[in-house]
Task: inverse folding
C-alpha cells in the first residue's frame, strides 16, 4: 500500500504544528520499532487524544491504529530486508532515495505514454511477458484485466517460439529488461541461442521497459528507466508504473 510514502507525503505537505505533520513525523521516526509502539505510547509521547489518532488512521484508509500499525510494520520490514543488501543506506534515507529516483524516471515516462499503454492493454486479447522473469512477474496483477497472460520464459524454447508465432495484431508483447536499452537488448537477443529467433518477428503490439533509449522504435513503445546501483529501485519503479496503469484502467472502466 506504500503507507510509508503516504506518511512522507502527509508530513511534507503539512505545517510543523499541524496534527498530520506531528503524527506522520512520529511514525516515520519510529519505523524501526513500530511493532513496539502502542496507541497509549503515541498518545503519551505526542500529547494527542485517542480520537485524533483514530481519525488520522481512518483518513489514511484504515479502521484504526492497530490495522495501520500492522500494515506499516509489514512494509517497514520489507524495506529493512531490501536495505540488508544495500548497507550503504539506512531506512531513514530510503524514502528520499526512492522519491528522487521516481522523479528522475518520470521526467522521461510521460502521461501520454502511460495512456497509450493503457489503450494497448485494454485492446489486447492476450499479453505475453518476456525478459527478466522477476520483473515480468510483477505484471501478473494485470491478469484481472486480461484473460490470457503468459510468461513464456518458463517454457521450452520450442514452446516460446510457437507462442510468438501465434501472436496477432490484437495481442501485446511486453519485454522487460531493466539493464538494457531497446537497441542493446535486441542485439543481445540476436546473439543468444536461448532467445527465440522470432522474438521480434510477430504481428503483436510491443512495449519495451528498460534502461534509457529511444522513446519509440519499430512501432515499439519504450519506457526508459534511469540506471541505478540500487537494484531494488527497479522493482519499486515498475510497481509504481503498474499502479498508475491500473488506476487509469479503472478510470476507463468506470466511464
Result:
Amino acid at each position: 500500500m506504500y503507507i510509508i510514502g503516504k506518511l512522507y507525503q502527509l508530513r511534507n505537505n503539512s505545517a510543523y504544528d499541524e496534527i498530520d505533520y506531528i503524527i506522520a513525523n512520529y511514525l516515520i521516526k519510529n519505523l524501526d520499532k513500530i511493532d513496539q509502539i502502542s496507541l497509549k505510547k503515541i498518545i503519551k509521547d505526542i500529547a494527542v487524544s485517542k480520537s485524533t489518532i483514530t481519525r488520522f488512521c481512518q483518513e489514511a484508509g484504515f479502521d484504526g491504529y492497530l490495522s495501520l500499525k500492522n500494515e506499516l510494520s509489514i512494509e517497514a520490514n520489507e524495506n529493512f530486508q531490501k536495505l540488508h543488501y544495500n548497507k550503504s543506506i539506512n531506512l531513514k534515507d530510503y524514502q528520499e532515495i526512492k522519491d528522487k529516483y521516481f522523479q528522475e524516471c518520470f521526467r522521461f515516462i510521460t502521461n501520454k505514454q502511460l495512456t497509450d499503454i493503457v489503450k494497448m492493454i485494454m485492446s489486447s486479447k492476450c499479453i505475453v511477458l518476456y525478459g527478466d522473469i522477476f520483473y515480468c512477474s510483477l505484471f501478473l496483477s494485470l491478469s484481472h484485466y486480461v484473460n490470457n497472460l503468459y510468461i513464456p520464459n518458463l517454457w521450452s524454447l520450442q514452446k516460446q517460439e510457437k507462442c510468438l508465432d501465434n501472436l496477432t495484431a490484437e495481442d501485446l508483447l511486453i519485454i522487460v529488461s531493466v539493464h538494457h536499452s531497446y537497441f542493446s537488448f535486441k542485439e543481445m537477443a540476436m546473439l543468444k541461442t536461448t532467445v527465440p529467433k522470432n522474438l521480434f518477428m510477430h504481428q503483436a503490439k510491443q512495449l519495451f521497459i528498460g534502461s534509457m533509449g529511444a522513446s519509440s522504435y519499430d512501432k515499439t513503445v519504450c519506457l526508459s528507466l534511469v540506471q541505478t546501483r540500487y537494484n531494488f529501485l527497479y522493482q519499486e519503479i515498475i510497481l509504481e508504473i503498474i499502479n498508475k496503469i491500473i488506476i487509469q484502467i479503472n478510470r476507463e472502466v468506470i466511464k
Notes: The first strand starts at residue 126 and ends at 131. The longest helix spans residues 232-254.
